[in-house]
Specification:
- The chain has 106 residues and is mainly alpha-helical.
- It has one domain.
- Helix 2 packs antiparallel against helix 3 and helix 2 crosses helix 4.
- The protein is globular and about 40 Å long.
- The two termini are 19 Å apart.
Length: 106
């Protein structure tokens, strides 16, 4: 399972080039003919953005984060991935979450 962070070195994972590559992956998934890599990157980005693998802190807007989490969970649930795919997807999304925490979100 690929995430955007797999394509770039630390320090470059939140660059304009990374954002453009993510944008092209989203466009391929929703508007064109995506590659498997495009699909994996978009899925890991959505699950990371959806905060599926993070915990809200007391001072954060819990409703916003819970709404994102529910959206991410819905995606994950309806995809009906095999166990190995779920684990690989979780690892990719967690990687994106950690990189976003350290280097900023795209």
């Amino acid at each position: 399972m690929q995430s955007l962070s797999n394509w770039f070195k630390p320090g470059e994972r939140r660059s304009a080039e990374a954002e453009q590559k993510l944008r092209r992956a989203y466009q391929a998934v929703f508007l064109g003919k995506p590659s498997k890599q495009d699909q994996e990157v978009v899925l890991s980005d959505l699950l990371s953005f959806g905060d599926l693998f993070s915990v809200a802190l007391p001072d954060e807007d819990l409703r916003l984060r819970e709404g994102r989490r529910q959206l991410a969970y819905r995606l994950f649930r309806f995809l009906e991935l095999a166990e190995a795919e779920r684990r690989a997807t979780a690892v990719a999304a967690i990687t994106e979450t950690l990189v976003s925490d350290a280097e900023g979100a795209i």
